[in-house]
Amino acid sequence: MQKFRIITVEDKHLSVSPNLENHERAYRDFDLKGWVRGEVEYFDDGKLNAAYNAVERHAHNENKNKVALYLVDESLNETKLTFFELNQLANRFGNYLKSLGVNHGDRVFFFLPRTAEIFYGFLGTLKIGAIAGTMFSAFGSDAIYDRLENSSAKVLVTTEELKTRLISVRRKLPALEHVITTKRLAKVLAKHSDELHTSHTDVDDPAFMLYTSGTTGKPKGVIHAHKAILQQHLTAKYVLDLKPEDVYWCTADPGWVTGISYQILGTLSNAASTVVYSGRFDPKTWYKIIEKYRVTVWYSAPTAIRMLQAAGDELVRFHNLSSLRHLGSVGEPLNPQPLLWSNRVFKHPFHDTWWQTETGAIMIGNYPCLDIRVGSMGKPFPGIHPAIVDDHGNELPPLTEGNLALKKGFISQMTKIWRRPKKYKSYFIKGWYITGDRAYKDKEGYYWFVGRADDVIKTQGERVGPFEVESAIVSYPACAEAGVIGKPDALRGQIIKAFIALKPGFKPSEKLKLEITEHVKHHLAGHAYPREIEFVDSLPKTRSGKIVRRLLRAKELGLPLGDTSTLEEY
Ligand code: PRX
Question: Which pTM does this prediction carry?
Fold first, then answer.
């Protein structure tokens, strides 16, 4: 077992000691009620509102005039919002929604870049007890349609530019009563009061929903309740080590769960100032942001770290990054090379954290007080009980690969899959929530990621369902059938590779590849298109006609084909 003593509290000569000083003791003695006391506020009637905790309480305490958000664009122009101002905007937005007839439990969706509207809009929605849904701004018309249709969203907030992607599907969305552009918001918000009675939502009331992909079918709407703020707050404090005096930068997008749990909810709740960068990835600009804002805690993803590494050490030396004190990573395996590199150039290693859209918050992680075992995801957060189980839910011994499972019922566990109760039930077996990841545990309780148990693709840390990409491909007139896999890639973790059989009369060509790529980008998403296309005569299928991606993957990677007895002749 490779144990690599990267850094310890003593080594770091920390000017501040970490919030979590002893993982073993904390794990043993954990008691949720005790940990939450003084951290997250319930109303007197025992109710809880996540947005109240993230922003409202700080708008009235000593954090009132502190910057909650530094919103930075590509030219490093900034908009600052204090906790007080952010709360006022959230209130105005909430009142505006009410004036439109939005009620408790209605769905309000956001299709926006990383500007102020997504933050106050999200918080304002939660404040009135409605359910906020977010969509990544690279989505195309089919992806937007699937989400708005399945959720029966009543309101969509978007920009003039992004709104054009709605045109072709708008009339198929009868439940969508209001499409509000940011231009319109700018005009109407001032007319609404900045005072709002925040809804005393029940701990189990839905707060937000996110669509995420599995192996089959359309993306599913994962619902999280207001109570998830407990786990988001505690993990932001004890895993990301956030303190109120920190300047924190999370590079994720609020269209994904990291951007919600650790750019809006758990991190604002800890009263740290958060930097939000809305521009494209550019190493120089990224370092400039750290330098300018004196970022202390930085939460990013392996692909970005590998891209920074590829940009070279020189660029790092050229900037003063001495403010950094704690680095975290999420979304895909953090391989040893970028981890060791970060430790060398930033003088701090990225601390890997593991979780999922469905878990709502960090479950397993590396902590400032623990040695890092390079390549491991770390140890479970206090109160979280993972295990490695076989396909029947029986626990497996250490050093045995199996399904990564979590003891069911943790506080930030998704509460349902929107309109799909059977699907929701299928996640659980013998008291375990089955994550869909393969992993093993070592003898000292560190968890090691092996891969996905299903066909889900992780490209640049973003989760993509092969079925959605295949559907987008075959909606192109030349394509008869398609099989899509994740192909290992040194920079992006995986890239999407598509095997396509053409309809009679169509010939493979580079031009056709380009046309298919554009088609997928337009309909599905700007990030979920196949970077590699291979034309084939036919695809491996089961006798019932299902495409066998396992075989495509095995062929691509030169692996054994395994059992092929149930397959149609290929
Ligand atoms: O396969 C695991 C991978 O990302 C999946 C969850 O993706 P998503 O719902 O988009 O949430 C990502 C951000 C929380 C997991 O099932 N994953 C996430 N973190 C890690 C990881 N794989 C390896 N190591 C990680 N630290």
Answer: 0.96
